[in-house]
Amino acid sequence: MNNQPPNAIITDHDKAMKIAISRVFPTFRHRFCLWHIMKKLPEKFGSHCQYGEIKSTIHRCVYDSFSQHEFDEHWCRMLDTYDLHKNAWLVSLYSDRHYWGPAYVRDTFWAGMSTTQRSEGMNAFFDDYVHSRTTLKQFVDQYDSALRRKVENEVIANFNSFNTDISCISRYPLEKQFQSAYTFAKFKEIQEELQGFLYLTTKEMGCEDGRYMFVVVDEVQIGNDLLKRVTFNVEVDQDPIDVKYSCKLFEFRDILCRHALHVLTQMGQHTVPSKYILDRWRKDIKRKHTFVKSRYDTTSIDDARRINKVKFGHMRRTFFQLLRLLITHRTTLQRLSIRTSVLFD
Ligand SMILES: [Zn+2]
Predict the structure, then answer these.
(1) How many domains does the chain have?
(2) Which residues surround ligand 1, an ion (CB under 5 A)?
(3) What is the distance between the alpha carbons of residues 104 and 94, in angstroms, rounded to a whole number?
(4) 244, 232 contact by CB (below 8 A)
């Protein structure tokens, strides 16, 4: 777009595409779709007598490794345990691990395309619209419907960001900073990080040349109930404030992680520098793509109805909040009753 190639691309695990992309777009960050790789497990190991164990070991290695070192260790142990050193598919996957391993691709922003969930973002986006037996003609129509839903959801999300308040869950001024700047959805993500403070233990390891080093132990949830203790490193330069952290959430999702936020609050730094409040997530910035006219513009009757419905819901909530407030303040209620009775007489 605008003669600018994108920074990153996701494709199927395919050798020919890997070579072509590296030649045509040498600066691209190229990633293979993890969901398609994991989908091949039954085909590759279905006939193996230990298929179930191999599958769950690979899943644990891929989804529950939080560093490249941990991933490598689990992978080698898996090859040893099931004697799979000569398996050509696994050999090629390991040599391409920088293209798909969650621990290896988290250093790049992927616009919300998950590295760890069982279904990648874009698959989930089309889930209700297309399936493996969808014909080309149906695909064109369904693609249209999927885009229409996306535009509608964005309009409603924009409206909510400006007209709905989510209360802060902490006393830290940095939460207020994000509350006033960020969109509804992104602020919720920041709040999830703040809720994660409960599971953190932070220890200062020392200071070298103005750079403070911390170790943060996090009780990370894997699966439904299991907790795993994972250690992350955070380094902070104090003047000016600059934070580096090993979980790479800022590179991957463009938000500060719980580990960095926890360290900052522990250092008495209760606001974050403006460079960590990104324009990308600000609610007061009109995204360029919204200036492009499309046939899904919100002038249609359906869209107008939906927006009115949201507005009505918002007004109703505000009205009930006002009523609750009045009920608890008797004198105000009495004064208001007198004034309204004058109005209606
Ligand atoms: Zn982190």
Answers:
(1) 3
(2) 245, 247, 257, 259
(3) 11
(4) no
For residues 305 and 277, state if they share a domain.
no
Ligand 1 centroid from CA 58, angstroms: 24
- Give the pLDDT confidence of 256-280 residue by residue, as tens digits: 899 999 999 999 998 999 889 988 8
In angstroms, the CA 344 to CA 188 distance is: 43
Write out pLDDT tens, residues 293-330.
555 555 555 556 666 667 777 777 777 777 777 767 76
Q: Are residues 224 and 119 part of one domain?
A: no
Q: How far is the CA of 238 from the centre of ligand 1 (A)?
A: 18
> Can you give the residue range of the structural domain that contains 270?
173-281
- Per-residue pLDDT band for 118 (boundaries 50, 70, 90) equals very low
Question: Is residue 193 located within the same domain as residue 257?
Answer: yes
Distance CA 237, CA 220 (A): 26
Residues 85 and 22 in one domain: yes
112 and 47 assigned to the same domain: yes
21: CA distance to ligand 1 center in Å? 31
Q: Give mean pLDDT, residues 18-44.
A: 87
**Is residue 221 domain-resident?**
yes
Q: Is residue 115 part of a domain?
A: yes
pTM value?
0.64
Residue 111 to residue 290: CA distance in whole angstroms: 17
Residue 120 has pLDDT above 50, yes or no: no
In a domain? residue 153: no
CA of 246 relative to ligand 1 center, distance in Å: 6
Residues 106 and 38 in one domain: yes
Report residue 94's pLDDT band, with 50, 70 and 90 as the boundaries.
very high
